[in-house]
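ok trying this again, last paste got cut off
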Amino acid sequence: MTENLGSVEEGRETPRHGFQGDRLPAPPASAVPMGVTLALSRETGARGSMIARRVGRKLGWQVYDQELLEYVANEGPLRQELMELLSSESAQWVEERLEQLLQAQNISQHPSIVQLARAILALGSQGGVVLIGRGAGSLLPSATTLHVRVVAPLADRIAFHRQRLRLTVEEAVEQVQVRDNHRAEFLATHFHRLPGDIYQYDMVLNSSLLGEEPCADLIAHAVQAKRAAWEQKKGGKKAEE
């Protein structure tokens, strides 16, 4: 599961900008999702993927980057295997959540995006994973998802991207701009959100000011807090039944 797959084909729906919260009814008392998921969004060159992997090591969670998420979503047998490993309750939750998202027009109906959403929901239904990009934070319920955005000043991002890929300054500037634009277009087209809408995130961290390790520590602590809040909420629901 380490192969790279090409970018998901862009759809043609008109984007509807502006964050509108979870935009779905509160889920009934349920054991699904079974745990908390970290969904990490990042600016190009802000070292978000490196920070995500640090968090994964701290928590003992598997990390799914953009390429791996797309590979799981588009590789039919692998996606089918993922779904078959779910309990009947988790599988039902995935399909119900996906149907809610589609009916609310929170995601596009492009087949590749539906497949991607199903794979992300399947992973999120179990919790205990780090998902990098691909709109994961827009798909999963806020109660069990820590949605983090990692940013950095443009000059620092260009310098990091140039050094990492051994590019000229001009090449690095162009690639940072192109990648940022592509990610923003992907979210706007398929999830009707923009990465700059800061109120959709639990945390926004400046990696240049904080550094990778402090960012990872803060995220790991926030995950634990989110998990404690979710477990307390589930306990309250059970007490009411």
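PB: full thing came through this time. Residues 94 and 121 are 6 Å apart (CA to CA).
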